[in-house]
Write a structure and sequence with these properties.
Layout lengths: L18 H8 L28 H9 L3 E13 L16 E16 L3 E4 L1 H4 L4 E5 L5 E10 L4 E6 L21 E6 L7 E14 L8 E7 L11 E3 L5 E8 L7 E5 H11 L2 H4 L2 E2 L4 E8 L3 E8 L7 E4 L2 E2 L3 H9 L7 E6 L4 E5 L1 E2 L4 H10 L1 E5 L2 H6 L8 E6 L4 H4 L7 E5 L2 E2 L3 H7 L7 E9 L2 E9 L1
Antiparallel strand pairs: 1-2, 1-4, 2-3, 3-6, 4-5, 5-6, 7-8, 7-10, 8-9, 9-12, 10-11, 11-12, 13-20, 14-15, 16-17, 16-18, 18-19, 21-22, 22-23, 23-24, 23-25, 25-26
Length: 459
Amino acid sequence: MKAIVNRGISAMRHRAGRYLTAIILAAGLPAWMAGQCAGQAWRPHVDPHNLRDTVTVQVVRHCSPAIVSITAKRLITRQINPFGSVFWGPVAGGPFVEVPADFLGSGFVIQKDGYIVTNNHVVDQAREISVKFANGRSYKAHVVGSDPQADLAVLKIDHGGVYPTIPLGSSGDLMIGEPCIAVGNPFGFSQSVSSGIVSALHRQIREPNNPTPLSNLIQTDAAINPGNSGGPLLNVYGQVVGINTAIRGNAQNIGFAIGVDRLASLLPRLMNPAMASGLEIPIKFTDTRTLRQPADIHEIVGIAGVAGSQITAIDGSAIHSLAGALAAVLQTAPGQKTVSVKLLSGKVLAFPIRPVPPSPVVVDAYKKLGIRIEQMTPQLAGESHSKIQAGIFIKAVKAGSIGALAGLKPGDILIKFGPYPIRTLQNLGVLLPHLPKTGRVQVLVVRKGGLGVGYLEFP
């Protein structure tokens, strides 16, 4: 079964009044200017003797290797026909069952180590995520960080390697009428291209299941369909100026994108080591992005509170962008004690790495019951082949503890504690302070798809 979910948009940016001028000037650019170099944006190179090879063609050719189709596997609830006939659809009284479904979307690589930007609604509640490149290669990926209110997420490809990227442009100086290009995965047709213009700016819309309206959006008339969500909105210099996020189902040629400046401001939250890898690293980056017309982005990454702290390298890796700095910090090696940051002045700073302290609920559960726990999530459910996506996952049980004597085992999912259902760590945290001094508490767990009952005995 496939459910295709998405709301997309895409567009591409350029100064409308200079569009023809840029094409004419590009025809005379030397070959070395067609590539990317420090401080110089990529430029399309239009051959006056081959008008088929347009700016749009070149932008798509240049950017497509870094654009991915995303498949997110989820469980959805369906009512089935109790009579079991292929000629009958769902009927009243039929049982509800959970069945797997594939939700489709798009994304693009912003950092060479395999960090991908997409919409949160594309990967929300995903048990498994795969990304497919234009060359046909597919990889598993996981969520590094997400912001449901902003409808943005960052993924990381699980397979090591160096991947093509798309540079981030600016959405703060977009003009109505600028040309735009959308590349995405509408209805599963990967690497589909549409083009149009920026139709309007500063739009506000409401998305299903998102109580916070999305504001300051870019409106475009580039053709957007389900599956485009998370794909890039490109300008004529091959820069991302927006992230496709929504369509109007009752209208034609009206789509919306989140401005790339919003993404840039949220990257430190979306690529936070404390959330992504459980490490505390006391570095707060500053990022200054200066636009030199028409499309050269000069980016300086520094350290907040340290004057003249332009960063040139982290742990030996050259740093040219905020995404690169955040990725370098996220990829600290196991057992590494410090992060080394080299400044433009030549000075080297060392920042300590510490594990994030476990939550009080986790500490209390081990202290009182002898069980090591974590929150059950759809991704963890997919990894453990469980249909249960909420509750408390038991990672380890201390020998001779109250939990061990109750028969709890690693891999169990705690779903009920006494008379109370347990879905989150917070639920369990409310109950742990009220354990009886003597007596017993019944617990209900899911083990290998079946239900089990145990009793926590308190002498």
